[in-house]
Amino acid sequence: MAGLTAGAPTPQALTVHQASRVLEVAFSDGATFRIPFELLRVYSPSAEVQGHGPGQEVLQTGKRGVTIAQLEPVGHYGVKPTFSDGHDSGIFTWDYLYALGSRQDALWAQYEERLAAAGVERDAPMPPRGRAGGHGCGS
Q1: Domain locations in the chain?
Q2: Considering Cα of 123, then 128, then 131, then 137, what sign does the dihedral take?
Q3: Theoretical Cys-Cys bridge with 60: which of 26, 42, 54, 78, CB 3.0 to 4.6 Å?
């Protein structure tokens, strides 16, 4: 999602809760979501995670303890977190944050299915860049 959809809910408040590792987002339609940092990280909209097209997604592991080191506004349409593992290339639009928040249960289930299908554990370290599962565009 590149930006705001006309008429879509907009954030009224964003709170980074470091101790519980969740981003709390309150939207104009009254919805409030507490999105775990790990979920944000494994579903980052960056090319490094999503790839450059369908089927090129890179399964993220070892992100349970990730925190948000910095959260920068991007125009009037989103934010760019810098995660404690150094990942900082994902721009989270308001639409995307709303989708992550409203679909958390389904997204967690999908993530667990992908882990099982790949035969890897959630806390397994990521393979070094340039090996299977990575991509080399540098984004």
Answers
A1: 11-118
A2: positive
A3: 42
Listing DSSP states for 8-40 in one string gives ---EEEEEEETTTTEEEEEETTS-EEEEEHHHH
Give the distance, in angstroms, between the CA of residue 80 and the centroid of all CA atoms in the same chain. 10
- Please name the helix (run of DSSP H) or strand (run of DSSP E) that holds residue 81, with its range, or none: strand 78-83
Cα–Cα dist 98/127, whole Å? 30
- Class of 11-118 per CATH? alpha beta
Please tell me the pTM assigned to this model. Answer: 0.87
- Residue 122: name the closest of 44, 40, 43, 61 by CA: 61
Cα distance between residue 18 and residue 30, in whole Å: 23
Contact 10, 29 (CB under 8 A): no
What are the two backbone dihedrals, phi and then psi, of residue 117, each rounded to the nearest 5 degrees?
Answer: -65, -35
Instruction: Summarize pLDDT for 8-17 with one digit per residue, the tens.
Output: 899 999 999 9
pLDDT tens sequence across 79-121: 999 999 999 999 999 999 999 999 999 999 999 999 999 999 9
